């Protein structure tokens, strides 16, 4: 209890500090700039970004991801009995994508680089197999990107969306809400309260903390005024958030755009990873991987090959932009997801 109070206190005082810094940095001028966060270990800062208007990336800092990976334990029995075999069409997709990737399977800097650069082309070549008839993916645009989502075949079913990193922009969520005929629940988390809370609470529930692989106080990169700055802010693990706070175990779509924190979340999605171990199902996921250094490229490479090896998520609709890569994952290894979204 005591601990929680301290966390809350810290959260409040940090929010106050952030608001104060906002004012200092000419908050009004930058009201429409997106505000995102990144969970990093700061080793050293270089020059802050120059003060021209365009802020679409965090400043270049020399970062090292905090050591908090949950390596799936081979000996742990999976609690979600996912012996479910994906449908034939998924195997066709898999057989299409694998031959172009297998030569790059070994993890080394050259292959990690190759995957980061060339995966999009290979994905695009195969996605028609699943997207022509089996699933109908719709686009939901916000101010700087497009989120993908399949609407439920039975439109009366509940849709549960989680947004990690609200970034002052809820246009895609609102567009999706308009398209949904049935009930929906939107849960958004961002360590910055200003603007995000007000916007998100109009249609969903806003949570004022970062979400990462683990709970704790972490140095996050947040945009304050026009500049990204590092702030020590409360972070909650994704599993704790879903299981203990939301108390749900079925997520229709999770939108991950948290400026670097995504790399440590990759292992969550693997077979026998944190989600499986907690019986949490994710049907769809919009994932943005941000400006990787070599270690992040290695993590990305590992994530892609393990995901392909799991034969659960299809990798679709890549977008390479600036130094980011957006991919869209659809779960073909879960019966409930398939019934809800796929025409088989
Ligand atoms: C994948 O491999 C096939 C067969 O070798 C080739 O024709 C095709 O161009 C490759 N696609 C990409 C995106 O590299
Ligand atoms: C998907 O549809 C497009 C357009 O009709 C077609 O060109 C393409 O060959 C189809 N792809 C597959 C794998 O069926
Ligand atoms: C956050 O960053 C500050 C400044 O670099 C450092 O002193 C502190 O140890 C960091 N805290 C955590 C929890 O990483
Ligand atoms: C796992 O979740 C499903 C619903 O998604 C439920 O039917 C099942 O009983 C749960 N299993 C365990 C072991 O909690």
Automatic annotation (TrEMBL):
InterPro entries: FkbM_mtfrase (IPR006342). The keyword Transport does not apply. The keyword Heme does not apply. It comes from the Eukaryota. Residues 144-313 form the Methyltransferase FkbM domain. Keywords: Membrane, Transmembrane, Transmembrane helix. Pfam families: Methyltransf_21 (PF05050). The chain crosses the membrane at residues 6-23. PANTHER family: METHYLTRANSFERASE FKBM DOMAIN-CONTAINING PROTEIN (PTHR22989:SF3), UNCHARACTERIZED DUF13 C.ELEGANS (PTHR22989). This is Methyltransferase FkbM domain-containing protein.
